[in-house]
Amino acid sequence: MNRGCDIIAETRILVVEDEAIVAEDIRRTLKNMGYNVPSTASSGEEAIKKVEEINPDLVLMDIVLQGKMDGVETARQITSSFNTPVIYLTAHSDKRTLERAKITDPFGYIIKPFKEKELKMAIEIALFKYGTEKVLRQSEERYRNLVDNAKDVIFTLSIDGTITSLNPSFETTTGWSRSDWLGKTFPGIIHPDDLSFAMEIFQHVLLGEVSPSSFELRVLSKSGVFVTMDFVVTPQVLDGKVVKVLGICRDITERKRAEEALKISEEKYRTLIENIQDGVFIIQDARIQFANEAFARIAGYTVEEITGKDFQELIAPEDLEMVTDRYRRRQAGDEVPKEYEFRMLHKDGKKIIVNMNVGLINYHGRTASMGTVKDITESKRAEDKMRFQSQIIEIMAEGVILIRASDGIIVYANPTFEQMFGYKPGELVGMDVSVINAPTEKKPEDVAAEIKEVLNKNGEWKGEVYNIRKDGTKLWCHANVSTFEHPEYGNVWISVHEDITENKQAEEALRESEDRYRRLVDFSTFGIAIHCDRKIVYANPAALKIFGATKPEELIGKSILQLIHPDYHKIVKERIGKQKHGETAHLMEEKFLRLDGTSVDVEIVSIPFTYMGKQAMYGIFQEITERKRAEEEIQRRAQIQASLNKLLQISLENISLEEILKKVIDHLTSIPWLALESAGGIWMADDDSDVLVLKAQRGLPDSLQTICARVPFGRCICGQAASSGKIEFANNIDEHHENIYQGITPHGHYCVPLISSGRAIGIINLYLKEGHRRDEKEEDFLHAIADVLVGMIQRKQVEEALKRSSEFSSTVLDSMNDALCIIDANKLSIVGANSVFLSEIGLSEEDVIGRTCYETTHHRPDPCKPPNDVCPLLETVKTGKHSLVEHLHCGKDGKKIYVEVSTSPILDEKGRITRVVHVSRDITERKLAEERLKQANIELKKADELKTQFLSVVSHELRTPITPMNAQLQMILAGYFGDVTENQKKSLEMIRRNTTRLDRLIGDVLDISKLEAGVMKFDMAGANLNEIVENAVETMKIQAWDKNLKLTLKEEKVPEITIDKDRITQVIINLINNAIKFTDTGGAIDVELSGNTDYALVKVKDNGIGIKKEDQGRLFTPFQQVDSSYARKYEGSGLGLAICKRIVTHHGGKIWIESEPGKGSTFQFTIPYNYKIKEGIIESNLFGKVLEKEA
């Protein structure tokens, strides 16, 4: 209920009515209802102005208004300009006016005369309707902002398919402007193939059916390209009918492209797996989860039969333990061979030899083994047969070579053949057979081509050939060449050279089945490279990327050591040496060099194998640069933190600042990971000059300590660091080294400034090896060290200052004449006291500490309990403020002493009062003196009262006869009793002036006696000080003119002020009167009125006789004038300024004078705007009551 009243009271209503009585009646009615009616208006123009000024919540508008605008036009302007609701008031109106009123969409009509209930109901309905419409407008605005800022396209369609609205996202998505399609039907923008589906959806929605959760359509963009978009549409129903369709769509073109690409990629992968000749399998939980047709065929099963089988069922017993063990270890993460051979059981029970290559994958969220197998049973048999045949060829006396028929390359030569042609063993392998043909009229390659032609035709060739040895000597040989199918090389020619040449002998190593793995290697994310004879012979794309190459040719043929960081050459050479003996290098970290010379961290494992008949290394590696950087950063931060912790540990030791600096420089110059020499020093700035003084050092030569004991700012590297406030770096002794001494050795420096409040308070100088490279991380660390050291120095300086301060405070406290103790705010126990306190109560510090204050100072068992007890301590704890009272304490031997107690709070860091400072001063002697003084004051007061009564009676008795005397004098001068001669007139005027002066003197005496007696009545009320000053000046102008003085007023407008109007007028007139009195004829008097935010200031300035400095202090004392001769010359009593001062002081103001003899005086006084006169009498016997209660 109260909340409803508050809402009504907050509602401001403007009444617009041209009949004042009616307007006032409505205003009172609304006010009685609880509404706020800040103003009324009688015309349309005034109403519009008032609406702009007060911003009402509602306007009650009379339709018929006098003036240029009637109520309807006024309401229209108010509604359109300020959106303020209007209710019309009308007694009768013509039809045309009512029709005009409807157009303004008022919030109600009230017919005069009306009842309060009708008025209140109309107002509440109008306010409710206006509030509802306001909320609705805000809701619509939020909806509009949401639609306009949405990334999705939002649109509406009419029931005939016309596009009625589009948000801005339509333009960014399709490239069309909204105006291109607003008002057009949607089929024109839909792909023809999707149109029938779109129309079907549209018809279902028009029937009120909800469309599918989402559907896809292709939409024409401005560029002519169709954009695939995902749509959601819903019917908008009003009164049970679909009135429009709301839709949201999103561009999914890129997503569709990605899905299509993924689909194609999956199809390619599936085709590859299904058509690959090698068997592919996935094993999980020891069972075959996937097998391609080739794998099933090798094992003699169908895919359906083999899927789900335990893989151990397919292993021959003699190899089962080895294969199973490797499977389990691989699953556990152990390093096991990825490729090996074993015997497999065929479905029909026979054993076949397979070559398996296997690794780990994530399959359906879990680890599984995936690999390939190849049936090598026949190739193994062929190898055995070839091995046997090779053994025969090896021991033949003839030279025999095998030549690959496809390209004419020699793939084998027996030892006899090699010796015959002067080649080293294996040297001919890989050469074109034409290399052994000596040139004749035919080129060697032509001879080879002819032989090849015959072999292809007949399968054999016999004849003599003219050959050439390696050393260039020529020989004829008889060659018997025939063709046959070799199990490894395919179709070959075997050539037997008899009796003519040494048979070339060589053995070509079985070529690794590169093609089988190349695809897997090329797509690996790991870098894979092969090096043979320490040269790169193969690198996959990932390896190219790591080395910064764009094509294999950039790496092939390069020495492996060219691509290894020099720091790792020794390690790599040792590893290659071990691998020549067949040892596998386990996973380790190395640093490679890219082609551009930059380094990259890698993790590598290398495996020895035979490549093209030679020992080679197979390296698998991945880049770990970022990981290494992260690890190095973590290690660096840990090292930095360890150093900072060491500094913190040093800072907590109870040692001097010099010892701290010595330990810090010892620590810094011994950090193992920081590339520093074991030498350095710390210089601190001298307090009185910009000079650095050496305070701590380690390893510095004696000569340097002497020459650099004091270094001015700006000199040498140390001084330059102090001046610039930045780290100075040098990697050798250059021109910046101004301090040079005999025997100086080459070195560099980090000079780190210690900055506090923008100024260098010292520097750290650390020695470096000559040629040291500047390191940003080292400088970051040194910055951190410098910041911490500055904090340590400042903390130590503060500690030493606090120590000195504490010692000083103890000395000061013990030197005080007042007793002081510190009291716990919660326990009320004493935690500290000075010697005066201990002496006053006659106890030792051991006896006092821990005791409560009330036990110690009052000898009572319980604490004080306000309000019955006066306790400054509890008052300070309660209010948090300083407290001062007079109290009674128990001193030595229970003696009562009177004390003045002052208490002040001590706050903790959270602003809570934890302790209280209790200071007491023995005022026993003062109290006795005060009692004596009090008695004397009583006697003086009585005498003063008698004086005041006497002055009052005398003044009254003197004034009583003056009044009729003045009246009789004025009547005589006016001629009531006959004509008065000129001499008589002069005599009578003199009598009248003196009578008036006597009357004014008596008035001043009465005023001063009332002011001193405190019985002067002040009528305090709000007043216009500008008017008071203006009236006073106007009153005194005639008197100024009589003396030919110029009286001017300069004023500022000041706020209304609370004063006694007559008394302040009395002050101003008195000051102007004095200025007139003491200013010679022809002078000038300036009156000024000004003010600030707190008080008003009045000045009365003249250019009269002026007053000496030593006389100014007596001006405001009763019956005082500067010189008695002034009183005789200027007729003064010496009471006017004293009265002025008491009146101004009573108003809380001040009055003073600024004057110089011969130049004039300026009297000025201030009056505060909001001064409240203090009334009441202070009880003088409060101390006596305290003593009585304490006793």
Percent of sequence in beta strands: 25-35%
CATH secondary-structure class of the largest domain: Alpha Beta
Low-confidence region ranges: 1-6, 501-513, 1124-1128, 1175-1191
CATH topology heading of the largest domain: Beta-Lactamase
Question: Please, how many domains?
Answer: 8
Largest sheet: 6 strands, antiparallel
Strand order of the largest sheet: 18-19-20-16-17-21
How many angstroms separate the termini?
A: 57 Å
Summing up helix and strand content along with how strands pair, one would put the structural category as alpha+beta
Which geometry do the CA atoms define? Answer: elongated
Helix content: 40-55%
Mean pLDDT: 82
The second-level CATH architecture of the largest domain is 2-Layer Sandwich
Search tags:
6-stranded antiparallel beta sheet; disordered N terminus; 1191 residues; elongated; Rossmann fold; 8 domains; alpha+beta; Beta-Lactamase; 41% helix; 27% strand
Topology:
Elements: H1 2-10, E1 12-16, H2 20-33, E2 36-41, H3 44-54, E3 58-62, H4 71-82, E4 86-90, H5 95-103, E5 109-111, H6 116-149, E6 153-158, E7 163-166, H7 169-174, H8 178-181, H9 192-206, E8 215-220, E9 226-238, E10 241-251, H10 253-275, E11 279-284, E12 287-291, H11 293-299, H12 303-306, H13 317-331, E13 339-345, E14 351-363, E15 366-375, H14 377-394, E16 399-404, E17 410-413, H15 415-421, H16 444-458, E18 460-468, E19 474-486, E20 490-498, E21 506-507, H17 514-522, E22 527-532, E23 535-539, H18 541-547, H19 569-579, E24 585-593, E25 599-611, E26 614-623, H20 625-651, H21 657-668, E27 680-685, E28 691-698, H22 702-707, E29 710-712, H23 716-724, E30 728-730, E31 748-756, E32 759-768, H24 776-815, E33 819-824, E34 830-833, H25 835-841, H26 845-848, H27 853-858, H28 872-879, E35 883-890, E36 896-907, E37 913-922, H29 924-973, H30 982-1013, E38 1020-1023, H31 1025-1042, E39 1046-1051, E40 1057-1060, H32 1061-1077, E41 1084-1091, E42 1095-1102, H33 1124-1130, H34 1136-1146, E43 1150-1156, E44 1160-1168, H35 1182-1190
Parallel strand pairs: 1-2, 1-3, 3-4, 4-5, 39-41
Antiparallel strand pairs: 6-7, 6-10, 8-9, 9-10, 11-12, 11-15, 13-14, 14-15, 16-17, 16-20, 17-21, 18-19, 19-20, 22-23, 22-26, 24-25, 25-26, 27-28, 27-32, 28-29, 30-31, 31-32, 33-34, 33-37, 35-36, 36-37, 38-40, 41-42, 42-44, 43-44
Helix pairs in contact: 3-4, 20-21, 20-24, 29-30, 30-34, 31-32, 32-34
